[in-house]
Design brief:
Strand order of the largest sheet: 3-1-12-11-6-7
Structural class: mainly beta
InterPro entries: Ig-like_dom (IPR007110), Ig-like_dom_sf (IPR036179), Ig-like_fold (IPR013783), Ig_V-set (IPR013106), TCR_variable_region (IPR051287)
Protein name: Ig-like domain-containing protein
Order of helices and strands: EEEEEEEEEEEE
Strand content: over 45%
Keywords: Adaptive immunity, Immunity, Immunoglobulin domain, Receptor, Signal, T cell receptor
Shape: globular
Organism: Marmota monax
CATH architecture: Sandwich
Radius of gyration: 14 Å
CATH superfamily: Immunoglobulins
Pfam family, one: V-set
Amino acid sequence: MDTSSGIVMVMLLILGRTHGDSVTQMEGQVTISEGALLTINCTYSATRYPTLFWYVQYPGEGPQLLLKAVKANDKVINKGFEATYNKEATSFHLEKASIQASDSAVYYCALGDTVAETAGGAEHKL
């Protein structure tokens, strides 16, 4: 992945469903200029109100928890990234106001509930 040119690459991949619950992102790779607004869409389908997560995986490392929201209207912020648990729109979109080359990574949107630890997920590469 070339991060020296001031370009940030984003790749999205749908993973499977479990127990009827799932999260959805667009598939493909997205290129964003440094300093631009990053928005990674994540919508979910769940039988209950799930806990929602964003994980980040930097090159050569394992996945790390980035954001976690446990109830509707929770707005969570970490390292300049933010997401709001929108129950009405069934969404948990990830945003960062000014993306940097150092943010190049794989981003995973996931959900869980109190019964099943992991009910679904989607991957996003930056």
